[in-house]
Design brief:
Layout: H1 2-28, H2 32-49, E1 52-59, E2 65-71, H3 78-82, E3 99-104, E4 109-114, E5 118-126, E6 135-138
Antiparallel strand pairs: 1-2, 1-5, 2-3, 3-4, 5-6
Helix pairs in contact: 1-2
């Protein structure tokens, strides 16, 4: 059963990469190789955000680079854990399919980045079951 769930999860993530890569090709007339490279990087970032704290860099809409510290993992930020999503306040059509929300640990609020603008993952701290010894993964 666990093997089947892993395969389903892998298929979903592959589909996510394809969907986002083809959206970049269509929306930005990006070459296929670059679109898939960026989609894979964004997928790694989204997976890491769900596992702990991630330091990553992306280009903001004004062209400046932002070094962000974020998460989508419960148990990292009390404000994130206490956040209540209100469907009536969300402007669904405001964001592109390529925009990814994350909880910004410095701003203590949701922010978003575009898959096309992710530059690099700097560091990932995976939330460990043993809170005294989180696992640190460094990227360059």
């Amino acid at each position: 059963m666990n093997k089947k769930n892993n395969q389903e999860e892998k298929n979903l993530m592959n589909r996510w990469v394809f969907d986002h890569a083809y959206a970049m090709i269509e929306e930005f007339n990006m070459n296929r190789s670059e679109a898939f490279r960026r989609a894979h990087l964004a997928r790694e970032l989204v997976e890491a955000l769900g596992q702990g704290i991630v330091v990553f860099e992306y280009e903001k809409k004004d062209g400046t680079l932002r070094l962000a510290r974020g998460t989508l993992c419960k148990g990292i930020s009390e404000k994130y854990d206490a956040y209540e999503y209100k469907t009536d306040s969300h402007e669904k059509d405001k964001y592109s399919k390529l925009d990814i929300p994350y909880w910004d640990l410095d701003k203590e609020a949701f922010r978003n980045f575009s898959v096309v603008n992710v530059k690099r993952i700097v560091e990932v701290v995976i939330k460990s079951k043993n809170q005294n010894s989180p696992d640190l993964i460094e990227f360059v």
